[in-house]
């Protein structure tokens, strides 16, 4: 629930309090005849007090100009928090070197492609959580993730697919507990490298993808490079992040 502004107000609409603490009614004649009552002064609320209430139920304001014109898949409503469960990927220098070769080549087919700022593999669709559901949802996720071992997986993902399906199965159970949409049937796990506004599949399919695959196959130590140690699962809800370490 949004924190309301703090203002000075009397303890009752019909009663005031005198300097010595006694409550007096305006009509009881307690003020001396011919003397106007002193006006009550409202003092400004110190910033230190206002800053005690930073948290609100309302999610962050949506501004498409801040993320390249991308539009939400569902409208923003007060108290609704877009939520996503995923495995983070910390890109190493060698991986970024490969991306520096791949992206310019792909941009010859689709010039508006933009490199991802961060990399991850999704374990859920984006769903909507009410603010008061966030902590119970994360606690349920942590309980489900507690038994999972860390593992190495290929970024394609060709190895480790079964382990990812197990993770998704547990995430789906939490989604069902909160009556939320589960992940896709027979999912193909992938790491997004770049994005663009609009549907560019026709330009990228066929020759472009074949050429990009050839670049990856010919890149030095590509097999070792495209392997990552999965140590944690994360949940992002609005502007809040929660981490669930794996064993």
TrEMBL record:
GO biological process, one term: U6 snRNA 3'-end processing
Catalytic residues identified in the record: 120, 190
Regions of compositional bias (Basic and acidic residues) in chain numbering: 20-31
Free-text function comment from the UniProt entry: Phosphodiesterase responsible for the U6 snRNA 3' end processing. Acts as an exoribonuclease (RNase) responsible for trimming the poly(U) tract of the last nucleotides in the pre-U6 snRNA molecule, leading to the formation of mature U6 snRNA 3' end-terminated with a 2',3'-cyclic phosphate.
Principal cellular location given in the protein's record: nucleus
Family the UniProt entry places it in: Belongs to the 2H phosphoesterase superfamily. USB1 family.
Domain of life: Eukaryota
Name of the protein in its database record: U6 snRNA phosphodiesterase
Compartment(s) where it occurs, according to its Swiss-Prot or TrEMBL record: Nucleus
GO molecular function, one term: lyase activity
Reactions catalysed according to its record: a 3'-end uridylyl-adenosine-RNA = a 3'-end 2',3'-cyclophospho-uridine-RNA + adenosine; a 3'-end uridylyl-uridine-RNA = a 3'-end 2',3'-cyclophospho-uridine-RNA + uridine
Gene: USB1
């Amino acid at each position: 629930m949004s924190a309301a502004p703090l203002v000075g107000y009397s303890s009752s609409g019909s009663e005031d309090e005198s300097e010595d603490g006694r409550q007096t009614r305006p009509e009881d004649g307690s003020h001396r005849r011919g003397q106007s009552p002193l006006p009550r002064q409202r003092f400004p609320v110190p910033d230190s007090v206002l800053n005690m209430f930073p948290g609100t139920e309302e999610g962050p304001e949506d501004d498409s100009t801040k993320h390249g014109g991308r539009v939400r898949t569902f409208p923003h409503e007060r108290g609704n928090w877009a939520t996503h469960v995923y495995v983070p990927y910390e890109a190493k220098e060698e991986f970024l070197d490969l991306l520096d070769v791949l992206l310019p080549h792909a941009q010859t087919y689709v010039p508006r492609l933009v490199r991802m700022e961060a990399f991850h593999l999704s374990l859920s669709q984006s769903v909507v959580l009410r603010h008061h559901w966030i902590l119970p949802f994360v606690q349920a996720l942590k309980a489900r993730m507690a038994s999972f071992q860390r593992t190495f997986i290929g970024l394609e993902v060709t190895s480790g697919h079964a382990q990812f399906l197990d993770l998704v199965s547990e995430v789906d159970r939490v989604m069902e507990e909160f009556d939320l949409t589960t992940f896709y049937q027979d999912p193909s796990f992938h790491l997004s490298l770049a994005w663009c506004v609009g549907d560019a599949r026709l330009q990228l399919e066929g020759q472009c993808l074949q050429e990009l695959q050839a670049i990856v196959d010919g890149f030095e130590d590509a097999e070792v490079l495209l392997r990552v140690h999965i140590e944690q699962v994360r949940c992002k809800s609005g502007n809040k992040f929660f981490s669930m370490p794996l064993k």
